[in-house]
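User: Okay, second chain of the day. Same drill as before: sequence in, structure tokens out.
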Amino acid sequence: MKALSDKLLSAIDAAEPRLRAINSSESEKPLRTGGWSRKQVLGHLIDSASNNHQRFVRAVLQDSLDFPAYDQDGNIRVQAPQEADWALLISLWAAYNRYLAHVICRLPASKLETVCRIGAGKPVALGFVAEDYLTHLLHHLRQIGVAD
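Assistant: Same drill. Structure tokens below.
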């Protein structure tokens, strides 16, 4: 998990200054017609960090994990990142992910096969959940235009 943690830290270190270079008004524009803005995508990534943080910790503490599905549109509607301060969203996203890198690095090898059921999805191992977290994060950072 150390390598995964290091990749997450590298992604944060590369994306954070690029995010800060985007001005607030630009962050509010939809990335495509009818789509989310950069603020909303970053809000979604903060949700992802929060949900996965719980998944990582609970899967280590239990024999298996059953976690509810994620309602991304509902979370964006309720949390309203579009109305939040852009600099706050960036700082929260970066700090939370640095902490998650710390947590991921310390996931015990003996627990990486813990079965995780998330919503109606097929059961997957904790190790896959951690790897998929980084894949998901990078996908959205590319969508925002701050990752290669």
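The chain is about 65% helix and 5% strand.

User: Thanks, on to the next one.
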